[in-house]
Design a protein that fits this description.
By secondary structure, the protein is α+β, with helices and mostly antiparallel strands. It is 62% helix and 13% strand. It folds into 3 domains: 2-125, no CATH class; 138-190; 193-353, Histidine kinase-like ATPase, C-terminal domain (Heat Shock Protein 90).
Length: 364
C-alpha cells in the first residue's frame, strides 16, 4: 500500500522538474504566443460542446445523441488540456497534465471506435432532399385520399338525393294514380252514357294534367293561385275577372283547387254564366288579423240556377274534398244572379298569401 502511495506521489512530484517556459528560454514573445493561443483554443473547445449541449437539450428527439454527448466530452477534455499547457509554462505539474491527456486519449479512442460502426447508420439517414421528396409523396397521397373521400361523400349524397327523388316520385305517382282512380270511379258511376262518361273523364284528366304541368315548372315546390286560374280557365275562351292578392299553394292543394276550378268552369259552360254570355268573377282576400283566407267564384249575367238534387262530383269535391284538405268551409249559393262558391280557410302552409312570412321555430 505504501509502495502505491509512494508511486502516486512520485508521479505528481514536480520538485525535480522545470516549467515548460524554460524550454522557450523564457522569451516573452514565445511564452505569450503559446499562452494566448492555448487560452483561445481552450475557450473555443469549451464553447463548441456548450453549443452542442444546448442543442441536444432542446432537441431530445435527435437520433444517436449519445454519440454527440461523447464528442462533447472529448472536446471539453481537449480544452482542459490546452488550459493545462498554459499552466505548465510556469508550473511544472506534468503529472496532472499527463493524467488529463490520458483521460482525453481514452475518451477520444472510445468516441472513435463508437463512431465508425455508427457511420453506416448515419449515412443511411435520408437527406433533406429525400425527406422533401417523401413529404411531397405523402402530401400527394393525402390529397388523393381526400379527393377519394370527397368523391365518396358526393356519391353518398347523390345516392341519398336520388333515393329522395325516387321516394318523392313514387309518392307523386301514387297520389296521381289515386286521383285518376277517384276521377274514374266518380265519373263512370255517375254518367249513364259511355260516350259522355268518356268525354267527362278525359276532360278531368286534362285538367289534372294542366295542374301538373304548372307544378313541374316550379319543380313541384308549389304554385301560384293566379297562375292556376289562368292555366285552368284560359282554354275555355270565356270572360272572367281575377282580383285580389295572389296566393301560394302546396302541390296537393294546387291539384285539388285545379280540379275544383275545372268543375266550376265546366258547370258554368253547361248550365251557368258562360252558357248565356255571362261573366265569372274570381276574387281572393286575406284577413291578416284573424289569419283567414277567402276565395270567391261568382257567376253573373247567366241564367237563373237552382240547387241540384243529388250532389255531383264537383259539389262533393268542393264541399268535402277542398274543405277537408284546407281545414276550412265551402259554401255553394244558387240564386238568380248565378252560382257563388265561397271558400274560407285558415292561413297555413297549404294555402297562404304570397308575401306571408311564417315564424321561425325557436331553437331548443
Amino acid at each position: 500500500m505504501n509502495g502505491l502511495r509512494d508511486s502516486i506521489a512520485y508521479f505528481f512530484n514536480s520538485n525535480a522538474l522545470n516549467p515548460h517556459g524554460i524550454c522557450l528560454m523564457w522569451r516573452p514573445e514565445l511564452i505569450w504566443t503559446h499562452a494566448v493561443s492555448d487560452i483561445l483554443i481552450g475557450i473555443a473547445y469549451f464553447s463548441i460542446p456548450l453549443a452542442l449541449g444546448v442543442f441536444l437539450w432542446h432537441r431530445r428527439d435527435v437520433k444517436f445523441s449519445w454519440a454527440i454527448w461523447m464528442f462533447v466530452g472529448f472536446i471539453m477534455l481537449c480544452g482542459v488540456t490546452h488550459f493545462m499547457m498554459v499552466w505548465t509554462l510556469w508550473n511544472p505539474d506534468y503529472g496532472i497534465e499527463a493524467l488529463i491527456k490520458a483521460s482525453t486519449a481514452a475518451v477520444s479512442v472510445v468516441t472513435a471506435f463508437a463512431l465508425w460502426p455508427l457511420l453506416p447508420r448515419v449515412i443511411a439517414l435520408p437527406s433533406p432532399l429525400e425527406l422533401e421528396r417523401r413529404i411531397a409523396e405523402r402530401d400527394a397521397a393525402l390529397a388523393e385520399l381526400r379527393a377519394a373521400m370527397d368523391t365518396m361523400v358526393e356519391m353518398r349524397e347523390h345516392e341519398a338525393r336520388q333515393k329522395l327523388l325516387l321516394d318523392e316520385l313514387n309518392h307523386r305517382v301514387k297520389n296521381t294514380l289515386a286521383s285518376v282512380q277517384s276521377i274514374a270511379v266518380q265519373t263512370l258511376s255517375r254518367e249513364a252514357e259511355p260516350e259522355v262518361a268518356k268525354a267527362t273523364f278525359v276532360e278531368r284528366l286534362m285538367a289534372l294534367s294542366s295542374t301538373h304541368n304548372l307544378l313541374v315548372k316550379r319543380s313541384w315546390e308549389g304554385a301560384s293561385f293566379h297562375d292556376l286560374v289562368q292555366a285552368s280557365l284560359d282554354h275555355y275562351g270565356q270572360p272572367f275577372d281575377l282580383d285580389g292578392p295572389d296566393l301560394s299553394m302546396a302541390p296537393n292543394t294546387a291539384v285539388s283547387l285545379g280540379m275544383a276550378l275545372h268543375e266550376l268552369a265546366t258547370n258554368a259552360v253547361k248550365y251557368g254564366a258562360w252558357s248565356k254570355g255571362g261573366r265569372v268573377a274570381i276574387s281572393t282576400a286575406a284577413d291578416r288579423t284573424s289569419g283567414t283566407l277567402t276565395i270567391v267564384w261568382r257567376e253573373q249575367g247567366g241564367p237563373v240556377v237552382n240547387a241540384p238534387g243529388p250532389r255531383g262530383f264537383g259539389s262533393r269535391l268542393l264541399e268535402q274534398g277542398i274543405a277537408g284538405e284546407l281545414g276550412g268551409a265551402v259554401r255553394l249559393d244558387f240564386d238568380g244572379q248565378g252560382l257563388t262558391c265561397t271558400i274560407r280557410t285558415p292561413i297555413g302552409r297549404a294555402l297562404y298569401p304570397e308575401d306571408w312570412t311564417f315564424p321561425t321555430p325557436a331553437l331548443a
